[in-house]
Amino acid sequence: MAGADGPRETPNGCRAVTYPLIVIPFVVATVVVTALSARRPRFRARMVWSTAAAVVLILLTAVFDNVMIAAGLFTYPEEHLSGIRIGLAPLEDFAYPLCAAFLVPAVATLLEKPNR
């Protein structure tokens, strides 16, 4: 991601990998696989349940990431973050539970043998 002064670079002049860039493939894979599962039975119900699961996982992530960061269990280098936080937790941390809530059921659906 580009900072206010241009692309972020490491001390050796290479572009720095940022957490928002790491998240992109997971989000793209989730969208593609979920879309591929749209023609399977019970898609609407699966989306409702995935949304409910996402809400719960995001709330748990908000609570536990903030607790763990406040306790000093881990930190993030500021230069690798988007700068947007929910409490102490960087926004990027919330992509993984969101993706899991939609990607796992979609993959499971695609792996099911169709009833004939």
TrEMBL record:
Species per Swiss-Prot/TrEMBL record? Microbacterium paludicola
Top-level taxon: Bacteria
Instruction: State where the protein is found.
Output: Membrane
Q: Keyword annotations for this protein? A: Carotenoid biosynthesis, Isomerase, Membrane, Transmembrane, Transmembrane helix
Q: What is the name of this protein? A: Lycopene cyclase domain-containing protein
Q: How does it sit in the membrane?
A: Multi-pass membrane protein
Residue ranges annotated as transmembrane are 17-36, 48-74, 94-111
List the pathway annotation: Carotenoid biosynthesis
UniProt keyword Isomerase present: yes
**Where does the Lycopene cyclase domain lie?**
26-109
